[in-house]
């Protein structure tokens, strides 16, 4: 079925190249040469050109492995760069956001209007006593106020941490505690598939106990949901807004001021707070808008991600707005009220650039070509993909049905940790090979190496590493620099270890093969096997649990749990349903397991380590019945495994 030849190559059309920011492979190579030979000069020149600084830096770069600083001593403000400077340049009337609510309400917000929203929100935070260095959690639906909240924090130097609305109260609590956040910004609800999310209820549950740091909860009214307000702590957005002015000069912040912390799953039960700072992050965000998305002033750009993930941070908020783009922002689900909602929006607003994930494309393929074909998608000129390798069938459909064979597809490889795209085509320069992220960005010294850090041969599998720090690299794990070093810089000392396996072909193209650790990729979202296992064993019935990713037609991988039970009289059918619900409660609905398998024992090595590799084989090669209560006797496998005693 998946038959597109790996040899298929799609060179850029002369028409696309002639107008592109980077118009040829030679131009791309020239940028790479400059960046490799003189990285400090290269990035300094671009930082001067692309960003507006209050004070220039003293040194472009400081590297004390594993800690990096860029533009040391320089000051700037991310919200100024994303909003004010466009207004000052006379573009205040340009639309920043064409926003579409799920129920069908719409708003067009200009840069001048966004400037007012951001300034007022920063003043609201000030009125509640927040100051530079404090932390605020943003737990909101996809509404313009969420963007204003992020930029309002940035304006003041309050470090934000956006928590995806699908996370549970438990997950929210853990993040509030780790950050010792002073404020939570939320809404009375948000629309998803015609229903409302009870965000405020989750906030109440999260901070009911053990969150003493939170003194303020700001609540946006988005639905008619009934919520409870706690006097003194909770305040309506509109009430607070009525007390402030439009005038809020941006703070002059150090280039290394912490802009945001975004939590992502690692190989332990505890999520990692990835820290990004201001200057280097913003530079890479704006550069990749031009290099990868080839953004022009008249583009209508649309990234379908949620602001709760890093893609939403870099490619809805900081990148497009710093670049002065007009973009589309949609609140709800792609299948509401019907599966052509995205195409209807793209046609109505004449989207020119569209960026989504392979999992979404696969879900859309299933609904049939007649849905996109019923809409005029001729405005599109560039398509993007992120989250996992794009499989040939999805690539072919995306290219033919959505792009009508005209639009290049930029397959963008990156991570929460990398801050922005590191490996991707430059669409006017790079010939595409479906399934490959192609070549690294200038200054990104990517390589595929073996256990000792030695480069492997052409087409050999190995670990993907980045040999030199780049401007938007994560700076540390919040409150855990030791884990930062251990996770990313200890395999090969001083070298960034991505956690992905890859190979490089004869043209130097990178092919990403997936994670080498216990991190799953479900619908393009990272989930930790350990995090789900820890949650499972917190349930009173569960003795032990092992979680593996199982191949899935739409989501790429699905969560499959092997569970042994404590003594007792359990109804496996009921318990299976309960445990799936339990995970949704402990982590979030998007982590809900596809399958729970009860077993007498888990296969372990003699030293007692669970052999997940074996379990992965079981779920990959066996046809599995849809029954979640299948009792599987792993006794034989367990014995076999113990004999081999792998570690
Ligand atoms: C995977 C999302 C192949 C990869 C921006 C990485 C990809 C992890 C691609 C990061 C791609 C992301 N091709 N694999 N184009 N994009 N990945 O932190 O395994 O949510 O390490 O960042 O997703 O996921 P994260």
Molecular structure report:
The chain has 20 helices and 31 strands. Helix 2 (25-37) packs across helix 3 (39-50), helix 3 (39-50) crosses helix 10 (279-291) and helix 5 (111-127) crosses helix 6 (144-156). It is globular. The chain starts with 13 loop residues before the first helix and ends with a helix. The site of 5'-O-[(S)-ethoxy(hydroxy)phosphoryl]adenosine has 21 residues, from helix 11, strand 20, strand 24 and strand 25.
Key terms:
647 residues; alpha/beta; Rossmann fold; Luciferase, domain 3; GMP Synthetase, Chain A, domain 3; seven-stranded mixed sheet; five-stranded parallel sheet; 20 helices; 31 strands; 23% strand; binds 5'-O-[(S)-ethoxy(hydroxy)phosphoryl]adenosine
Residues in β-strands, percent: 15-25%
Assign the CATH class of the domain at 107-259.
Alpha Beta
Measured as a percent range, the helix fraction is 25-40%
Give the rounded overall mean pLDDT: 93
The CATH topology assignment of the domain at 107-259 is Rossmann fold
Radius of gyration: 24 Å
What is the rounded distance between the termini? 36 Å
Question: Structural class, judged by helices and strands?
Answer: alpha/beta
Note poorly predicted spans: 623-634, 639-647
Oligomer: single chain
What is the spatial order of strands in the main beta sheet? 5-4-17-16-18-19-20
Q: How many beta-strand segments? A: 31
